[in-house]
Amino acid sequence: MSQAYDxxxxxxxxxxxxxxxxxxxxxxxxxxxxxxxxxxxxxxxxDLSMNGLSFFAKHNAFxxxxxxxxxxxxDAAEVYQGxxxxxxxxxxxxxxxxxxxxxxGFLDIPRLVDQHNALSxxxxxxxxxxxxxxxxxxxxxxxxxxxxxxxxxYRSVCERTQKSVSADGHGExxxxxxxxxxxxxxxxxxxxxxxxxHLISTLIPGSPSHRATKHLTEVLITPExxxxxxxxxxxxxxxxxxxxxxxxxxxxxxxxxxxTAYGKLLHRLLTRFPLAACVIPRMExxxxxxxxxxxxAGQSHxxxxxxxxxxxxxxxxxxxxxxxxxxxSPTHPLHVVLIxxxxxxxxxxxxxxxxxxxxxxxGSRVECLHIAFAQLLKDPSLLDRLPGQDLVYSAGLVxxxxxxxxxxxxxxxxxxxxxxxxxxxxxxxxxxxxxxLPEFLLDWTLLYRSEQEMKAFADHLDAASVExxxxxxxxxxxxxIESPS
Length: 485
Fold this sequence. Notes:
Layout: E1 23-24, H1 25-28, E2 34-38, E3 41-49, E4 52-57, E5 67-74, E6 77-92, E7 95-104, H2 109-133, H3 138-165, H4 175-200, H5 208-220, H6 222-225, H7 229-236, H8 245-253, H9 261-271, H10 274-277, H11 279-299, E8 308-313, H12 319-327, E9 334-340, H13 343-360, E10 365-370, H14 373-378, E11 389-394, H15 403-414, E12 417-428, H16 436-441, H17 451-456, E13 465-470, E14 476-482
Parallel strand pairs: 8-9, 8-11, 9-10, 11-12
Antiparallel strand pairs: 1-3, 2-3, 2-5, 3-4, 4-7, 5-6, 6-7, 12-14, 13-14
């Protein structure tokens, strides 16, 4: 229905001030190297608009209100030269984000996109495919051919079987038959994956050879996996971030999912990959941590009105809470707080956990906070509304955070732990031979850390004890930091 003019509403608060549209640099500038010079020093461009831009900085060497000279180049062509004023400084997972307001000139975004596309086409035609292919190790090129042959061999096996199941070729192949096919495929896939891991270990990260090898993988091998659910979600990231809660649920389920038999095999190949399958023991360890917090509260003879408080940052589907509640019937009331930037993930978690909480009938509660990680970095006081927690944990957030930001997150979460409580943080272990599939095949970058690095995050905390545990698969560390009583 149309609205009368007096029914139309504007924005509220700070949103009443119009801002020109911002574009992420990685969305606009994809095929041509961009160089941003700030006071003649190179910086990594983050986003841009008609009247401003922002960039990543490893160190906070800028001051709000300071003037700076700016130059933006695409390849060798300068597309903007002007002056700006530092208007914003924020913590970010990769260091600092510095915002700049332009005070001379403006960024012509449509013209910039046209220039980018023209330069990209020019570079592609000038260099040709052979130049980039020549940067890829010969052994890796041969390996890609082997991988494609093996995968498509099993595609043809599935298609022939489907034709034999029904006349139209769309019949359902029995699951035991597909499991039999999977065992054979996995036996041939595993050594190919190990060879790929070995070959990429010789490449220098960020080098032209490294980039070309990754590009070749995404052109040849990645499309093959798009027929599987895990391959599609892992690479396309339809919710805008890697490892969304739907994909995590697929990792937990370990089922043959997909529209085709071949897609189901590919889905299982990825969900049973160690970095996917290890989410299950990690979840079980977190459920045990919740059980320990509840048991500890019971032993302390706390008042029944003093709930056992548990908070999860980056909760996703919160399967550990569900697992705990299905296995235990605690008499002490709980107050579970789930924090995530994905509202759909919180909705899923709440719908699973709330019925189990309600069945306890002892005053237990579950609360969901829809807070973006960037919001917490800007304003850690958002967590101060929570009373002291018996257990605070974050399962997979710091896998994506540089050390300075991870250290800040540890301190932020530890500050919410009550005396005698525990902080638990997980991170993928620096186990060799696991980076090829997520990084090259799915464009899914993780930071792997050692036991010593996990312990070091607690060095600045006044902890009673620090213990690092490795999950039973050997692929995930959990560090347990206990607050003094």
